[in-house]
């Protein structure tokens, strides 16, 4: 029994496909003991993975950053991901892929001898943003970013993100907006965008944010739509007085943020830049 998830859904673990409720890892897996691993979340529509090449690049960057060797080549991983996607019902799904350093006696330092990384993948339905979220936007609360200084690594050590997201749940909103030293970073599990005077702004790609797969995509969509884009530090005051604020992630896709800390963003309604970028995003999905 897995609370909240069907036990018979297909998962992949270390070379084998099995039911989710049958897959078992060692209690000494370093992912379990230390959060010593990385992950990816890949959306798929109508049986096709979205932006797979970009996910591979980020996966390889994350592995390199924490010095875990790539345990499988792209072709083998693609075969796993495709089989999971093919097993999923419904129009859209999410593949979760996790690679940890592997199993060894508990010791903070890397194992003294080479060990085999643990590779796990599962598929779950993608609950698409609702019509209400798309048409009326979502609400967020702002909080201090208390996470570590390597947010660019898609690490499974997510306690800071977990505690941040719980603050959103307890405030009855969809997400948080985090600030570090008065500058915008990102959501608990999403990137945040600001529109001022028709221009799209994002915090720079550095160690303080995860470069979402939608980061590069939004820049492309902005260019196609004739919206200028700039990555630069964004002070809190510029977020609070923005014309529009947007949130992006694999699961949120692109959504307008229309309330921050109970106050309306701009006129409190989704704005024109959101509409252009949302249309571009939908067109990319349709063209898959
Ligand atoms: N989270 N920033 C953080 C901290 C994230 O966890 C995510 C994604 C993003 C957006 O990245 P992308 O566009 O690649 O989804 C930004 C995923 C969805 C998750 O942890 O479930």
Automatic annotation (TrEMBL):
Gene Ontology molecular function: any one: transaminase activity
Keyword Manganese listed: no
GO biological process, one term: amino acid biosynthetic process
Cofactor(s) needed for function: pyridoxal 5'-phosphate
Keyword set, alphabetical order: Aminotransferase, Pyridoxal phosphate, Transferase
GO cellular component terms given for this protein: cytosol
Homology family: Belongs to the class-IV pyridoxal-phosphate-dependent aminotransferase family.
Protein name: D-amino acid aminotransferase
Species: Bordetella genomosp. 12
Top-level taxonomy: Bacteria, Pseudomonadati, Pseudomonadota, Betaproteobacteria, Burkholderiales
């Amino acid at each position: 029994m897995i609370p909240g998830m069907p036990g018979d859904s297909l998962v992949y673990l270390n070379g084998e496909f099995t039911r989710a409720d049958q897959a078992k890892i060692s209690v000494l897996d370093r992912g379990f003991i230390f959060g010593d691993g990385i992950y990816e979340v890949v959306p798929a529509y109508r049986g096709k993975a979205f932006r797979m090449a970009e996910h591979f690049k980020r996966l390889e960057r994350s592995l390199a950053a924490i010095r875990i060797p790539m345990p499988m080549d792209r072709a083998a991983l693609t075969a796993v991901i495709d089989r999971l996607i093919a097993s999923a019902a419904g129009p859209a799904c999410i593949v979760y892929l996790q690679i940890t350093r592997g199993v060894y006696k508990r010791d903070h330092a890397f194992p003294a001898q080479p060990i085999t990384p643990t590779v796990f993948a599962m598929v779950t339905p993608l609950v698409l943003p609702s019509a209400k979220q798309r048409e009326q936007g979502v609400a967020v609360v702002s909080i201090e970013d208390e996470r570590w200084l390597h947010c660019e690594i898609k690490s499974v050590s997510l306690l800071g993100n977990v505690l941040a997201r719980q603050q959103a749940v307890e405030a009855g909103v969809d997400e948080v907006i985090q600030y570090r030293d008065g500058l915008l970073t990102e959501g608990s599990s999403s990137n945040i965008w600001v529109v001022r005077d028709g221009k799209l702004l994002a915090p720079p790609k550095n160690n303080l944010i995860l470069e979402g797969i939608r980061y590069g995509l939004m820049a492309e969509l902005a260019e196609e739509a004739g919206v200028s884009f700039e990555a630069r530090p964004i002070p809190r005051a510029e977020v609070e007085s923005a014309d529009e604020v947007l949130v992006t992630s694999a699961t949120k896709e692109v959504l307008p943020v229309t309330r921050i800390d109970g106050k309306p963003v701009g006129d409190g309604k989704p704005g024109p830049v959101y509409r252009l970028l949302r249309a571009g995003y939908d067109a990319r999905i349709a063209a898959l």
